[in-house]
Known about the structure:
The complex is a heterodimer.
Chain A: H1 6-22, E1 36-48, E2 58-72, E3 76-87, E4 104-116, E5 119-126, H2 146-151, E6 162-169, E7 175-181, E8 197-199, E9 204-206, E10 225-234, E11 237-247, E12 253-255, E13 260-262, E14 265-277, E15 280-291, E16 306-318, E17 321-332, H3 335-341, E18 352-364, E19 369-378, E20 383-393, E21 398-409, E22 424-432
Antiparallel strand pairs in A: 1-2, 1-22, 2-3, 3-4, 4-5, 5-6, 6-7, 7-10, 8-9, 10-11, 11-14, 12-13, 14-15, 15-16, 16-17, 17-18, 18-19, 19-20, 20-21, 21-22
Chain B: H1 2-20, H2 25-37, E1 42-52, E2 58-69, E3 75-83, E4 91-96, E5 103-108, E6 113-117, H3 133-137, E7 144-151, E8 155-162, E9 172-178, E10 184-190, E11 196-208, E12 211-221, E13 226-237, H4 248-252, H5 256-259
Antiparallel strand pairs in B: 1-2, 1-13, 2-3, 3-4, 4-5, 5-6, 7-8, 8-9, 9-10, 10-11, 11-12, 12-13
Amino acid sequence: MTARKPGQFLCAVLAALLILAVAPSGARAGLLDEVDLHGFWDNRAGLRLQDDAYQRRTSLLESRLQLEGLYQGDVVTWQVRGDFVADDVTEEHDVDLEEGSGWFDLREANLLVSPTDWLDLKVGRQILTWGTGDLLFLNDLFPKDWQAFFIGRDVEYLKAPSDALLASFYPEWGTIDLVYTPRFDPDRFIRGERISYYNPLLGRTAGRDAPVRVDERRDWFDEDEFALRVSRNIGSFEAALYGYLGYWKSPAGFDAASGRNTFPRLNVWGASLRGPVADGIGNLELAWYDSRDDAGGDDPLLPNSEGRLLLGYERELARDFTIGLQYYLERLLDYDAYRRTLPAGTPKRDENRHLLTLRLTRLLLNQNLTLSLFAYYSPSDEDAYLRPSASYKLTDSWQLSGGGNIFAGRRDHTFFGQFEEATNVYAAIRYSF
Amino acid sequence: MKRLLLLFVLLFLWPAGQLLAAPDVEQIVEQANRAAYYAGRDGRADVHMVIYDAHGGTRERRFTILRLNVAGDDQKFYVYFKAPADVRKMAYLVWKHVGGDDDRWLWLPALNLKKRIAPGDKRTSFVGSDFFYEDVSGRGLEEDVHELVGETETAWLVKNTPKDPGSVEFAWYQVWIDKATSLPVKAEYHDREGKLYRRVSAARIETIQGYPTVVEAVAEDLRAGTRTVNTFSNVKYDIGLKERIFTERFLRRPPREVTR
């Protein structure tokens, strides 16, 4: 028997709590009577449309039971939300709450208190989101689960949980949110275990044969993260300033000595504005990615600093038919140094990565049928990613859905191009209660 | 002498005659608008919505709605969904601006995300029902020409013709306004062929805290054969809602006014 990780103990306790909470009412008493219990049972399967030498043909085959307990008292609100997962694709069934792998994934476990009427404190595991992009993130440096997103899980799984303290201050003029994450929460990034990726060392796409090896950052209170947002409404416009002190969320660096990928230090500063523009909603977001470990931009093993820009616009084209357009720019700030120090044979990035997105959403049959297309296209990388989807509410409880994740690219090393062989379709049925 | 008497009578009766003649239609619609959408300084209600499709199937929605009257005729609404399970804990926030576009946000709890909704068409279905957004928050009085076209013993009949016919799906609609309560009790919508295709009516009215209140409302789509019934319970007015409830903070953390 292998040694149990502390996370496993925690999740066993939480699982027991959830089971206790849904046990027949006779077994419950006092506090649990006031707990609001809900959840869903979600079954989904997906298939790769192209052969990938390093992966299974089945991209997704899982049954997921999510249970949620919520208690809203006078002084405190607490919430526990977790998924019991039977996943046929992975060979690893031990629980890893950081990676979200194994038979249990804890989505939320937190306490919320309002000690004064200008302060809310939320402590524990929680989902955090901010910024103005639609499936594009500049100042939102909370963890994402790219694997879940690309294989066809529900879009809510793109957001991975953070173990953090959120303090929200509400002065008269706006809102100040401060998030402290005592131990770095990385993205659930593409490791090659389910989706193959471009490995620059091998100079080719790699998968289960060569999963990404990383130098984890796991020191409590030392390898920690701070995120700040200051926001206010100005008429119908929402304005915000952001700051982040932490690390690249996916392992963007490389340590030649250990042969492992690393999470280099990163600070991000940004701003956003969102409001009504020409019968629609417009948004603008800016961010400066200060790659602290590569101040000069001349270390080829570390990511360059970047300027990021997003312009977006959404409006209703016709009844129950909405269109959203975004332009996104990622600009390397020390491009000359980057180019000068790039090792021979490594594919070279452009100074500017341009990305356009289109979202079309159509509601039909009394809004019970949703047809949607989200498309990314990068003219600079010459790659694309399409997310068509359809979902139909059979009843108030049962929902059928299906869709695809279609990748295309001219080259193997570009962001979407490397996932070409992960192109998949999926179908799902969900019962909510 | 006789002539003098007649003159006297005429002079005396003239103002009374004016009163007996048609009252000012603008005043009637203004009062109806007040009675239907502005009762009290604020209010709350639990809504149970049942949507009947043409084949006998039903869908249900449960939500709590908070309303606050703010400066001018502007209002703020907070709608908190309790059922069905897949929309539970979603919240919808509206800052209604009379004569302009409303600001609307949707709170998606699983993503912890405040989504801004494009202004868009207010004559679209509210959460898949036969009610429109405009039925929930009220249609701007300045958008139609109002004519008093008749009366019954209990109601004024007002015909409303849109000033911008291209912006709406109806050619005109007629509203029955209860003389006693000033509440609009029935509205019938006609298409460009003059055919009746949609009806919204008050099925039950109760007086709550002195305010006549529709506690059951029905919207029917006569073409599709669908019907939605809204039943309102726990209606309360003047509960002292604070404006700060209608902000991002309380989207993230629903106020006790909606969770109780």
